[in-house]
Design goal:
Elements: H1 3-11, E1 16-19, H2 28-31, E2 33-38, E3 41-47, E4 53-57, H3 60-69, E5 73-75, E6 84-88, H4 95-112, H5 115-121
Antiparallel strand pairs: 1-2, 2-3, 3-4, 4-6, 5-6
Length: 124
């Protein structure tokens, strides 16, 4: 998987948009983070230049299981480690699993939206 395929996959979900909100960050790595949103809430982000891992939300109980199963699943970079994890590309996590985890992250965020936000998204 490459950044173009990954971006297209993330943007394929209903109501998703992306932007690079950290243009003033002191670190070049952080300036190059592309964040994917649904209803202005993050569900995933990735560095567009390095494309080494993506950060995604996950159910806390599943994060530990995934970390035990895959070396490529680590605590979330710069995020709440209870709810976010970093999933590394080109390690032992298959692309199919990465896609499933990104979709679950999207679903977690959609489920947390207000009734009005869900209606606007067409998720009800």
């Amino acid at each position: 998987m490459n950044i173009e395929e990954f971006r297209a996959y993330c943007l394929s979900f209903k109501g998703v948009h992306d932007k690079m909100p950290f243009e003033k960050a002191t670190s070049e790595y952080d300036r190059n983070l592309l964040v994917f949103y649904v209803a202005d809430k993050w569900f995933c982000f990735v560095n567009v230049d390095v494309f080494d891992f993506c950060n995604i939300k996950c159910i806390p109980e599943q994060i530990e299981e995934l970390q035990d199963k895959y070396e490529g699943v680590k605590p979330g970079y710069h995020m709440n480690k209870r709810h976010w994890m970093s999933v590394y590309f080109n390690e032992d996590v298959p692309d199919k699993m990465i896609r499933e985890l990104v979709k679950k992250s999207y679903d977690i965020v959609v489920s947390s939206l207000s009734k009005k936000e869900k209606e606007e998204l067409g998720a009800m």
